[in-house]
Amino acid sequence: MSRKINNPFLRNKEATRLDSVIDQMFDAYNLKGKTDKATIITLWEEIMGKTIASRTSKLFFKGNILYVELTSAPLKQELTQAKNKIIALLKERVGKGVLEDIVFR
User: Fold this and answer.
1) Under DSSP, is residue 12 helix (H, G, I), strand (E, B) or coil?
2) Which residues are bridge partners to 104 per DSSP?
3) pTM
4) Domain limits at 71?
């Protein structure tokens, strides 16, 4: 009787799909959240559009909160009003659990 060991640091005896191995590695090194945060920052222009992206000076995470520094005060006001919709769009693309809130500066 063969038992499958779930320790990601041990070598598997049988062939394993590459996507499965990568998922195991991300879980073992707690990289999933970090890559999702990087994906959000990378997708900012695609999701928000070139106009908003061109007025965004800095994007960064502290914990699960995304900080967005903008160069336009009226745009900051508009985005603050649409914050829930923006969070929903980002969560739809990346998944839940990574983004809790957005702060526009």
Assistant:
1) coil
2) 68
3) 0.72
4) 32-104
Q: What is the 8-class DSSP label of residue 1? A: -
pLDDT of res. 21: 78
The answer to whether the CB of 44 falls within 8 A of the CB of 59 is: yes
Residues with Cβ < 8 Å from 50, sequence gap 6 or more?
none
Q: What is the pLDDT of residue 6?
A: 61
Distances (CA, A) of 70 to 41, 53, 73, 76, 104: 14, 9, 7, 7, 7
β-pair partners for 66: 61, 102
Length of the chain: 105
The CATH number of the domain where 64 resides is what? 3.30.300.20
**Phi/psi-derived region of residue 39, left when phi > 0, alpha when psi is between -120 and 50, beta in every other case:** alpha
Q: Who contacts 80 (Cβ-Cβ below 8 Å, separation ≥6)?
A: 104
Residue 71 φ then ψ, to 5°: -100, 0
